[in-house]
Design a protein that fits this description.
single chain, alpha+beta, two-stranded antiparallel sheet, 361 residues, Pdz3 Domain
Length: 361
């Protein structure tokens, strides 16, 4: 059930992203010919008011189709309601709307949880383990989601983000070096040994960490505090996500191994959902922000790549040649699909259940 919950969250995020593009176009009177979730052959297809809605075989994303891209379309190429005939600001809004929709969803999810469940009490000292990757150093040390790390090498961890940062930095500085942790599980404390893996000279343990909140919530003291605390949490997640992608660009060798594919993302969602609704909310907000930042990158087929072509058009005063656009789109499709398949294979082979089956051969 936890896996299905994670898959449902991913499906919602894809629908919201594509709905952003769709609504930004239709509300401006721009013609839309299709709205699809997934790629490849259509499993379910319905047509309404000239728009074909479809669920397709490969659930790796989605797309909104426009008559401009259909060579067999009988719409006049000079029709002012075609996307390509609209001013650059209107087209830019359609491109950016998917990213904006994901960011808005993340904020709304965090706000709704705070409004319904309440705001968390100030964090206690220590660090909370949120998720653990299979066969990582954290799993080998018997760390599990829900564990609270109170000390590392006889040094008490402070409350809040300072404690998280202190633990992360200590781990980074100890590749292959055993560390002694004081762990609390089910109100029982014990000392364990954690030996970070050595990845490009930095220690990695394969775990997601966050501030040690007790789980006790209180009602917000008015709309101002509710918006303020939600904004702080949203900003923190966004900064961490941008920093993560920035590290992937500036230090690819050290961070490439941390890139996760669909299988690992679903696994992380399943782990977080074990903590109940709050864990699933965190997963939805985190992945929605990640999807927004990823699509903002200036890469072919992504929204950022389309925005870059639009920028070139504005600077040139005329559209980028169609042959170049097609070449970029085709190369981008091969790159993204190929990378996705590689990550799926890698992440699947790293699942503990798969490795157990392989070990029995």
């Amino acid at each position: 059930m936890n896996v299905f919950a994670a898959l449902a969250v991913l499906a919602v995020l894809i629908v919201v992203h594509e709905a952003g593009h769709f609504l930004a176009a239709t509300l401006q009177g721009i013609r839309v010919s299709g709205f699809s979730i997934g790629f490849g052959p259509a499993l379910i297809k319905r047509q309404r008011r000239g728009v074909t809605y479809a669920i397709r075989a490969l659930p790796l994303g989605g797309f909104v189709a426009f008559p401009d891209d259909d060579e067999s379309s009988d719409i006049d190429p000079d029709d002012p309601d075609l996307l390509g005939n609209r001013p650059i600001p209107q087209r830019a809004l359609v491109i950016a709307a998917g990213v904006l929709a994901n960011l808005l969803l993340a904020f709304v999810v965090l706000f709704s949880q705070a409004a319904i469940v309440g705001l968390p009490a100030p964090p206690d000292p220590g660090v909370l383990v949120v998720a653990v990757q299979p066969d990582g150093a954290a799993e080998q040390a018997d760390l599990k989601p829900g564990d609270r790390v109170l000390e590392i090498n006889d040094v008490a961890l402070a409350a809040g983000q300072s404690g998280v940062q202190a633990m992360v930095e200590r781990i980074k500085q100890a590749p292959g070096v055993p560390l002694t942790l004081v762990r609390e599980r089910d109100q029982q404390r014990e000392s364990i040994t954690l030996q970070p893996f050595n990845q490009q000279g930095q220690g990695r343990i394969g775990a997601q960490l966050q501030a040690n909140f007790s789980g006790v919530n209180r009602p917000a003291q008015g709309p101002g505090e509710l918006l303020g605390r939600t904004g702080e949490e949203f900003q923190q997640l966004l900064k961490q996500t941008v920093a993560g992608y920035g590290g992937l660009i500036t230090n690819f060798k050290a961070t490439a191994s941390q890139v996760s594919g669909p299988v690992k993302i679903v696994e992380m969602g399943a782990q977080l959902s074990e903590q109940g609704g709050s864990g699933l909310v965190l997963f939805m907000a985190l992945i929605s922000i990640n999807l927004a930042v990823l699509n903002s990158l200036p890469l072919p087929l992504l929204d950022g790549g389309q925005m870059l072509l639009l920028l070139f058009e504005g600077l040139r005063g005329k559209p980028v040649p169609e042959r170049l656009q097609l070449a970029v789109a085709q190369s981008g499709f091969v790159l993204i699909v190929g990378l996705t398949l590689v990550l799926i294979v890698r992440d699947t082979t790293q699942l503990s259940v798969v490795q157990q089956l392989m070990g029995h051969r």
